[in-house]
Amino acid sequence: MRSHKEGKHYKEAILRAGELAAKHGGSALVLNLVGELQKAMHRDSALVSFAAAAKLAPNCIDTAVSHASMLFESERYVEAQVELLRALAISDPVDPAEHNVGYGLCSDLTSAERLRDARARARNAMESFTTFICEEFVPTESIRVLDAIKLGREVAATAYDLAKGLATSFQFSGRAQFLRAYVYLKRVRGFDPAIDKRPFLRRTSRMLQDSVIAFRRSLVIALFHAKLLFVLGEYADAERACHRALAIESPDDPKEHDLPPGSVSGEEYDDRVSCVKNQLRTLIKKIIFVGASYSRLPSYEKEDSLMSVKVKPLLELCNATDKSLAKTITDALRFFKKNNSWSFWICPLSARCDGREFVDTPSLWKHLCSKHPERLWGKLESILGPKLCESERDCFALEWITFSQDQDQHDIFRLVKMDGMFDSLIRRAYVGAEPNLVEMRTDKCREGAEILEGIKRRLGALPADISSSQFDDARSGIQNMWLNFLKISVLDYREFMYPVAKLKKGMTDNPNIVGHISDSKIDSIFDDAPSAYGCNVSEGHDSDPSDANKMGTTRKQNLKPLHSNRTLKADGDHQESELCFEDGNSMVKPPNDTEGKEMEIDEIVANVERNELELLVANLLRKWQTQTAIEVSLLSTKKPLTKTCLSIK
Ligand SMILES: [Zn+2]
Fold first, then answer.
1. Alpha carbon of 412 to ligand 1 centroid (Å)
2. How far, in Å, CA of 436 to CA of 416, rounded?
3. Where are the residues of the annotated region Disordered (predicted)?
4. Could you tell me which residues come within 8 angstroms of residue 601 by beta carbon, excluding any fewer than 6 positions away?
5. Ligand 1 centroid – CA 367 distance (Å)
6. 365 CA distance to ligand 1 centroid (A)?
7. What's CA 503's distance to the chain center, in Å?
8. Residues 267-294 pLDDT 10s
9. Rounded distance from Cα 346 to ligand 1 centre (Å)
10. Of 184, 285, 199, 304, nearest to 501 (Cα)?
11. Per residue in 63-95, pLDDT tens?
12. Which of 300, 330, 355, 525 is the most exposed place for a label (fewest CB within 10 A)?
């Protein structure tokens, strides 16, 4: 070793080491030395030496790490990992100096210090190893696996085995776990259209279940899982999965797990995160819409063509789950029946009048003057004039719900503007918290009281000369503050009714549909149309298909290209398929038939892209209202057209 270090001939060193090895074949120290000298030039021989040394000195951490490093150099990653894990797990290690000459050359460390350093080296080696596997090996292998799949069925099956091997060997790699399910799904999608894919999709979903937990900050894994649940018709679970993912505080960078690697677009971390989050939100919209469609189907009544929720069962449900929500709904109804309005003003000034609802601004003003008299109120009234009771109610966004009664005088909530409802639900999903009437009222009271204090201060300092420009300025300032006050002091019950839509959906979720899941539903959910999301999801990689032959460095497979390259699409002519379903009268048809209709609605929704969803909803609602046949043509971003024909008898 010294002759090697001192720059003497490598040949000489290796010769001497060889002599030593011949003399002391059973010495780990000599074998380690030989391995060290060989590793630069004779990798295979070095590996043999280190392997023999590791066998002779199983409790030597340094020897195990050297052995592992050599395995790694030889691209035998699985074995390298096993050896590194063994190195880390040695419970009664021997002094590294016993088996490694390097220590004799330059060391005045104690045995304990040498052991400490050896342990640190083992940990570092493991860390570098996992980094390499996650950041280089698995991504490269993923591309090779995905390329291989494009080559055809048999190759695809082999590729799946390789993906499975990666997942089993490198459990710390989220992408490897994801790849296994991803590839499995690709394979399932290549099955004959006549084969029921449901059990296979279930299996894919189960495959990913542990990864969703183990890599719980991964947005791409969560999205993929949620999509699977959606395709399976498990909408409640799918929605939960989306909400959970959206609520992740600092998600993993999508580029750590995305498949194909690099497919989530975005220069910066934030761009990539928002790209995936947008897809999650789109999926939520689809889920909501499917839920809404289902809920309509069985409850269709001729005279009530809109979606509706009977208040009584709704309240019973709320009482069992959320009493304060039940109270809010009861209060809202009472208020609406009395005033024909959902919005009201509150007095911010006193705890005594907390809870009082003023149906308009004049009554709020009257209340302020009588219950909280101030000498400046008169002044305020005089300078504001008619503006005092001006009120702008900006409640367009809340117009998705209204109230009516059916012919038997049952109270009913009607969901009239689906896009408003979507927005409401999506906003909640984004904020992550459900609105709370009590909290919001408290906040508004505090804010309102602050504004009133400010108004009083400005009134007190009002210039005496009412013809001066200072007076005008002050007056318009006060006017703005007052308008702001009125705006802040208004509350709208509908703001808190969004759980109605949610419950409505929950009550009528239809998770147990049986029968075929169409290829088109699966395709539309998993073949994300790039422009629709503002994301550049690229499926392809331009790498040479012959790369597939290099797949799996340690498990070389002979992947022959197959003549058939048929994987995803069942047939080419479904670009302009007509999905027809009947409305209205179909409700009285046997359940099997209804089921068929539901599947078709599924498909329609699945096919609809984000920007078109609202349009579809609007069209559907108009159709439901007018009961006339209309045709909805939906521009697909990928295909020329997905034409959806909606005809009604
Ligand atoms: Zn009051």
1. 33
2. 23
3. 536-556
4. 290, 293, 294, 297, 581
5. 6
6. 10
7. 22
8. 999 999 999 998 898 888 777 766 555 5
9. 8
10. 285
11. 889 889 889 988 899 999 999 999 898 888 887
12. 355
For residue 443, report the distance from its CA to the centre of ligand 1, in Å. Answer: 15
Fold entry, domain 2-108: 1.25.40
The whole-angstrom separation of Cα 524 and Cα 534 is 16
Q: Put residue 125 in one of left, alpha, beta given phi > 0 → left and psi -120 to 50 → alpha.
A: alpha
HSE (CB half, 13 Å, CA atoms) of 110?
Answer: 3
Q: Are 377 and 385 in contact (CB under 8 A)?
A: no
- CATH for 140-265+514-550, options being 2.40.50, 1.10.1660, 1.50.10, 1.25.40: 1.25.40
Q: How much distance in Å is there from the Cα of 359 to the middle of ligand 1?
A: 14
Is the confidence at residue 604, as pLDDT, over 90? no
State how far the Cα of 331 lies from the Cα of 325, in Å rounded to an integer.
10
In terms of Cα–Cα distance, which of 350, 347, 349, 348 is closest to 358? 347
Please give the distance, rounded to the nearest whole angstrom, from the Cα atom of residue 472 to the centre of ligand 1. 30
Cα 369 to ligand 1 centre (Å): 9
Residue 310 phi, psi (nearest 5): -70, 135
Residues of the chain with CATH 1.25.40.10: 2-108
For residue 350, how far is its CA from the centre of ligand 1 (angstroms)?
5
Please name the residues in contact with 263: beta carbons below 8 A apart, sequence gap of 6 or more.
Answer: 536, 537, 538, 539
Q: Tell me, in angstroms, the distance from the centre of ligand 1 to residue 364's CA.
A: 8
Q: How close is the Cα of 495 to the center of ligand 1, in Å?
A: 23
User: Cβ(513)–Cβ(233) under 8 Å?
Assistant: yes
Measured in Å, residue 440 CA sits from the centre of ligand 1 at: 17
| Structure letter (DSSP) for residue 74 | T
Distance 337 CA to ligand 1 centre (A): 24
Cα 484 to ligand 1 centroid, rounded to whole Å = 18
- C-alpha to C-alpha distance for 93 and 114, rounded to whole angstroms: 11
Confidence of residue 553 (pLDDT cuts 50, 70, 90): very low
Residue position matching structure tokens 């050599």: 70
